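Q: What would this chain look like folded?
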Amino acid sequence: MNAIFINPQLSVQKNDKFTTGIVYMPIALAYVVSFFKKKNIDVEVRDLFGQNPTHSQIIDDKIILGDDIRTLKFTNLDKIKCFFVYANQVANHNSIKKIVLHLKNNYKNIPVIILENSQAVTAYSLDVVKEKFFDFGSDYLVIGDLEYTSYELFSNLNNKNKLKSLKGLISKEIFNNKINFVNDLDDLPIPAWENFPVENYWSLGYSHGPLSNKRYLPILTSRGCPYPCKFCVVPKTNERKWRARSAINIVNEIKYLKNNFQINEFHFEDLNPTVNEKRTNEICDTFINQKINIIWKIVSGTKVESIKSLDTINKMYDAGCRYISISPESGSKELMKQIDKPFDYNHALKVVKRMNKVKIFGQACFILGFPGETRGDIKKTRKMVYDLSRKGIDEIAVFIITPIPGSRIFNQFSKLNNLSNLTFTPTWRDDYKSLNKERLLLYLIFLSTKLVFHPIKILKQIINFFRKNFQTKMEMVPYKFLKISKFQYASKKTH
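A: My prediction, written as structure tokens:
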């Protein structure tokens, strides 16, 4: 019997093509596909976005990129045991809903299983919004680490009694919201990228992380995060557990991908890859000793305090690291206590200064609009942006808080009827206009400070943009904006 895996389309806000519509290659899904193949199960992947990433449809205030859902047509139905639909990002919820409705309307006797993306801050807890999924026909939800629970569910779909005790499984009759963790990540097979249209992702010329080569692939060197930040979904979807792969296991994957896909650029999509500094150094030493000769970038952020020694920064550069994203969030220590996220400002400034010295590009991420934030808190964030910019941070990203299902602030907001509107440009917020003005001011502070203290950097970034050799997201995002605008224009002409 076959397992069908479906990745949804990508949703972009028409009024914000800069910070929405970020391309994430579906690495969690690729892990599950690989796990099933290892168990000798026939698999088929339908990546609606990846199959046709330049095709666009305009639906209300969204640009939907990828193949039309009506292209999901299947034959030999007696060989299909179930459909797995990947709930990759909360912003794509409407696309996920339409996929399920389409499958249930056309293949009503085949179970539809929703897979949670527990390794992204832009995803959502299926447990928290389970009733919405059941209302439009989903049969099962798999939460947390997907491999073991998905396989056991697939193997025992006709054995309801066995499913009752399966961790990480939720249905109308079953509620086991304790995660079935993969404790030894080294046991997992390499993600099955051969089943995905990776060439189409590469043809876009942009990605989540800054893309400085034509080809790249994401890597997860660890899973989870130990920190309890109130605005983040990850404490819910990972139970604050951090698990890591060994350095040699990571190197073996990189060697395989390098040889089989001709990849020299790898984007670390971990939620927090440097939690253990000893392990970070082991990874670097292994890369150096085995002469791996790659570029790798920490593109989803990491806890800067976990890089305790500045010498680690030097070693990371020697091992091929060329980009690190950190998340100060706010310049206000008082607000950071409310957020429940400790942050060492002085250490961050030292790390950024060292990164600047050794030529590792850096990003600092900030948030605005956390419940209870005051004008005084925002003024302190302005100061923090100025200080980091003066020390040489290459770019900043400013996100307006949106209540992700599963975060501790989720129930503090109203007007949450449409989950696909839960982006970091939440125009539905009553205070959006004032927060967006503050966001623009923070970018202005960053750019003006950089122009004064690091003018050569700005010139180099302009050159990088025209060469399509993106060392920072700041250089790549305008290119992404132009490409999506082109897709949107083509859609208007064909309709």
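The chain has 17 helices and 18 strands.
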